[in-house]
């Protein structure tokens, strides 16, 4: 009888109510362990198809039976039932996802168990359900998902941690997260554990770190209580992680480091805008010029691997240099201006950011502009003036003003290199004309 | 993008910051029509700036998630039997055994042999079902602790607790790990009949005929490996039978087959 049923999966009619009923009946009341397990395996395969999922949830008692098997005292049936639920959780149909609601209290209960494979499965299932349905999230919060995750994050198993990070990241990404979810996450022990899992060192696992870096990003960009994270050492940990990433990037061609780089860059950039960051500015990490070195190594890596992430790296560079004479000096003393100029041809967004960073340096006065001059800066600026993008040109004009102001000879050199002609093409552009005229005046009359 | 060779050395070098060059601003800088001033930039959730990175994250996850959940090909080993006394389950894969062990033998009540999914639920069970001191205290104060981790509420009766679980925590009314203890008289530790079968969510219709066989086969309660959990002595003589289902695991299944 067992063989008969499994062969049915090859038939196109599989997925019809009668087949599903047969599998469920066998799973629930079969006499042979292997038979029951086999029925669930067949059911799971069927549930990979959306039509079967729909049929299944409409069948009376089907979810109830599945939950019964999930909570049965037969371990392998539990596992197979969990796999069936996991299939359902992949659905993009909210009806299917919400049909799984009766199972959530059990999935959470099992997170405090010890079977790592099973817990991993429960976590991925929960993560999937969370993403698809606000109704699921509305139920999971009172059911205690935050304390359940906080207990589970102490697991020593990397696979469990990665799955947990995934589920948590989905929860934190929910649209209602800033009001309904993040406050209780911040109030739990989760942030401390997350930061621990992001500490660089031999125990750092890339897959785990990626998940928790994204979790941190969702928390931080929601701006609920970033000061708390800073007191827990987030800036310090992330700064050290950045250094570690730059080291890793030099050592290996390992695919995937950019997956970690992205959230780390974002977290650091946003945290630097917090008032609390000023307070801990005394911490070495925030003044340590190795951070600048690391960032440039990462920029080079991103240029090759994932140029679309360059703006994120340059965003951090802006936030590091904006109010820091120390970091601006580092850019000069470490000879990083020329590499920066190389990025001007990548895209308009990147160009604007590069020019902004250069303005950050130049606006600090003559001592800085002197070090920017002569060098390739002038010819780069003449190139950017040829861009058609108004923002790029506008930022170039701002930089020119600063150079004319602080660097004697800059205006002269500009004129000699046909700077006036370069300016002329923008004379009629509304957002640019006033600045263009002002620069023309300065260049000609000093 | 050529980086200066000294940069890599700098990264590997000691922490430290550059002695900043002197800052000296001219008030004319950034004045109309110019507007530049250095600014810290912050991007909130959902900002367009994050689009590219978010797309990559999404693609990565899609990749990861398609690999999860399918039963991977487990390396098969020669069949072996679960070594826990009274359990005859056979395995040919170590991971299957791991889950079986954790699900059925890890958090087992030494009084009544029920298995629980976590230490927390086991501890609660022992306290509420097998501790007569608990029963005494429960007459005077709220002793039934909410089952949800993180919730510190306590209740007078298990029914009140169940109501709290349902109303406050949206738990199902028939949550399998919160079965009320039903006893026939004054609190007798472990005395319960079909509640035993229910508590572990056994879906089968209990067949009455099994009771005797299970009893006669009833094994001596094995010396509990996690003995330090049990603060109270084992009061029930091992020869007393607690009704069907007392001996958990697959032994019962096999018995059923034999007498079909």
UniProtKB/TrEMBL annotation, chain A:
Lineage: Eukaryota, Metazoa, Chordata, Craniata, Vertebrata
Stated name of the protein: Transmembrane and coiled-coil domain-containing protein 6 isoform X6
SMART domains attached to this UniProt entry: ARM (SM00185)
InterPro entries named in the record: ARM-like (IPR011989), ARM-type_fold (IPR016024), Armadillo (IPR000225)
Keyword Membrane belongs to the record: yes
Keywords: Membrane, Transmembrane
From TrEMBL, chain B:
SMART domains with a match to the protein in the record: ZnF_C2H2
Region (Disordered): 11-30
InterPro entries xref list: ZNF511, Znf_C2H2_type
Domain C2H2-type: 82-105, 109-130, 146-169
Signal peptide interval: none
Transmembrane domains' residue ranges: none
Protein name per its UniProtKB record: C2H2-type domain-containing protein
């Amino acid at each position: 009888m067992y063989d008969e049923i499994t062969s049915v999966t090859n038939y196109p009619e599989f997925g019809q109510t009668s087949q599903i009923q047969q599998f469920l009946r066998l799973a629930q009341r079969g006499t042979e362990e292997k038979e029951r397990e086999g029925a669930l395996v067949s059911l799971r395969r069927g549930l990979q198809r959306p039509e079967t999922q729909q049929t299944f949830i409409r069948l009376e008692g089907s979810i109830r039976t599945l939950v019964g098997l999930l909570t049965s005292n037969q371990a392998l049936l539990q596992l197979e039932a969990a796999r069936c639920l996991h299939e359902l959780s992949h659905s993009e149909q909210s009806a299917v996802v919400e049909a799984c609601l009766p199972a959530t209290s059990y999935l959470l209960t099992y997170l405090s168990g010890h079977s790592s494979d099973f817990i991993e499965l429960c976590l991925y299932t929960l993560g999937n359900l969370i993403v698809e349905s606000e109704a699921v999230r509305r139920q999971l919060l009172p059911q205690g998902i935050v304390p359940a995750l906080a207990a589970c994050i102490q697991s020593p198993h990397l696979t469990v941690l990665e799955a947990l990070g995934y589920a948590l990241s989905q929860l934190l990404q929910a649209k209602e997260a800033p009001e309904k979810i993040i406050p209780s996450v911040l109030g739990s022990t989760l942030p401390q554990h997350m930061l621990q899992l992001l500490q660089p060192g031999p125990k750092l696992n890339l897959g785990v770190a990626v998940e928790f870096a994204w979790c941190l990003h969702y928390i931080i960009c929601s701006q609920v209580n970033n000061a708390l994270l800073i007191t827990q050492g987030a800036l310090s940990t992330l700064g050290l992680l950045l250094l570690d990433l730059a080291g890793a990037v030099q050592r290996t061609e390992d695919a995937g480091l950019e997956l970690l780089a992205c959230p780390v860059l974002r977290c650091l950039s946003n945290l630097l805008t917090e008032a609390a960051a000023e307070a801990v500015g005394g911490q070495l990490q925030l003044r340590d010029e190795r951070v600048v070195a690391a960032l440039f190594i990462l920029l080079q890596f991103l240029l090759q691997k994932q140029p679309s992430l360059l703006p994120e790296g340059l965003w951090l560079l802006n936030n590091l240099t904006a109010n820091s004479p120390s970091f601006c000096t580092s850019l000069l003393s470490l000879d990083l201006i020329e590499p920066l100029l190389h990025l001007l041809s990548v895209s308009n967004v990147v160009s604007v950011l590069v020019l902004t960073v250069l303005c950050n340096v130049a606006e600090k006065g003559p001592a800085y502009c002197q070090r920017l001059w002569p060098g390739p800066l002038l010819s780069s600026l003449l190139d950017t003036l040829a861009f058609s993008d108004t923002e790029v040109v506008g930022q170039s004009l701002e930089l020119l003003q600063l150079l004319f102001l602080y660097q004697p000879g800059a205006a002269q050199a500009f004129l000699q290199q046909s700077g006036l002609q370069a300016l002329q093409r923008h004379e009629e552009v509304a957002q640019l004309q006033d600045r263009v005229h002002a620069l023309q005046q300065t260049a000609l009359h000093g | 993008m050529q980086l200066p060779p000294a940069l890599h050395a700098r990264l590997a070098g000691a922490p430290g910051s550059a002695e900043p060059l002197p800052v000296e601003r001219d008030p004319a800088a950034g004045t109309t029509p110019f507007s530049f001033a250095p600014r810290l930039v912050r991007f909130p959730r959902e900002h367009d700036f994050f689009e590219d990175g978010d797309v990559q994250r999404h693609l990565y996850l899609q990749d990861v998630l398609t690999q999860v959940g399918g039963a991977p090909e487990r390396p098969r080993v020669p069949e072996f039997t679960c070594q826990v006394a009274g359990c005859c389950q056979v395995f040919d894969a170590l991971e299957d055994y791991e889950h079986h062990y954790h699900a059925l033998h890890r958090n087992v009540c030494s009084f009544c042999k029920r298995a629980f999914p976590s230490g927390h639920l086991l501890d609660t069970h022992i306290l509420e079902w097998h501790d007569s001191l608990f029963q005494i205290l429960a007459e005077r104060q709220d002793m039934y602790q909410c089952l949800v981790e993180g919730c510190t509420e306590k209740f007078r009766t298990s029914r009140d607790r169940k109501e709290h679980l349902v109303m406050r925590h949206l738990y199902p009314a028939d949550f399998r790990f919160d079965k009320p203890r039903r006893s026939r008289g004054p609190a007798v530790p472990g005395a319960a009949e079909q509640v035993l079968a229910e508590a572990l969510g056994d879906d089968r219709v209990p067949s009455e005929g099994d009771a005797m066989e299970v009893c006669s086969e009833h094994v001596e309660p094995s010396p509990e490996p996690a003995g330090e959990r049990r603060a109270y002595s084992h009061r029930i003589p091992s020869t007393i039978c607690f009704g069907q289902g007392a001996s958990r695991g697959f032994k019962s299944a096999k018995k059923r087959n034999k007498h079909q």
